[in-house]
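User: Could you check the structure of this?
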Amino acid sequence: MTMYATVIRATLLIALLTLPPIAEATVYNLSADWSDAANPTGPWSYRVGTTLLPHNANWTIFPSPQPAYQPSNVSGNYLPAWYKATSVPAGFDNQVGDVIVHTNDNFNGNEALGAANVLFTVPAAGRYQISGGLWNANTSLVPGDFAPRPQDWRLFVNNTLMASGTLSGLPGDATRANPQTFNLANVLLNAGDTVRLDVSRNINAQAGFFVGTDLTIQTEAATTIDTFQLKAQFKQWCKGNPKIFELNNTKVTDGVTLTFTRDVNGDGVLSDVQITVNNTGSTDFDAFTLKGFAFPANKAGSKLDFAVSGVNPGNDTHFFTIRGQASLNKLGVLTKVTGAWAALYTSRYTVDKKTGQLSDETECFGRGTLLTGNKLP
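Assistant: Sure, the predicted structure tokens are below.
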């Protein structure tokens, strides 16, 4: 494999997807951020379907004052209801300050309006951890009172289902101390993206009921390192080559790896990108550290356009530059990198194809395309 092939591998690393920076970790929590003064409040919205719920100062089914977001306080039209508990009524499994939802049903609500849901609108681009849990907030129903009442929950990121479950409504199952949980780490989100938690009556339940909810969304500041195999095609011009140029390719089986690092300093600045090339057999290309930027290429954030470059610290006339596109899965994890590259470096050209004889090292220029192979453990 020529040093040129090595260069291409390096370019792959550019996959280092980058986004606008987040200065430090920020934590958003459904309970801690709760407000009875406004809906939406900050990034949170309390809804039925796509409709914001109005605020009611006192849901009178409780023995003590309990503010809630609900259609009204009138029997037959008070569901769904979102509230931050001000007390622990008999038969309930909650603490003061827990956020509870009574799901929608057609006895005291209108299921045609949609499911009870809380919507979080992402305020700034970055990587986030999305975690939380749900539990049966009341299992004290007596026989004949539509017991049990199983309830469903679903977690969406940008309308893509990411987690789901069903609460049985049976005593001792999915309690506050042992809830059903979810935890999505390293999720790449852009400003304006959404996280939505739907809670609704299970098809086997005759009515809605009380469900405890916990939802925390926080920015992540952590260095991310990924290594890929690389394949590439390129044209190389070398000083003294009587054939002017030669065509080369690098296969994923050649053993060259590209490692890209995001958030190099671990400070949440996702636009920090560093690229290194490994196992190239070339001291020239192994010396390159490519740095640059990448920015979203579509609204979904599944594509990033990038440009990176670097010079050999031992010979600053030698350079390597790449521009291309990185692909992300729905969790924002890098899956593929494609691009075009150009470089000036020291290499050899083929003197005799039959014998494989190569020239002495000389100055070469190369350009071509690259595509990543499998991600390595």
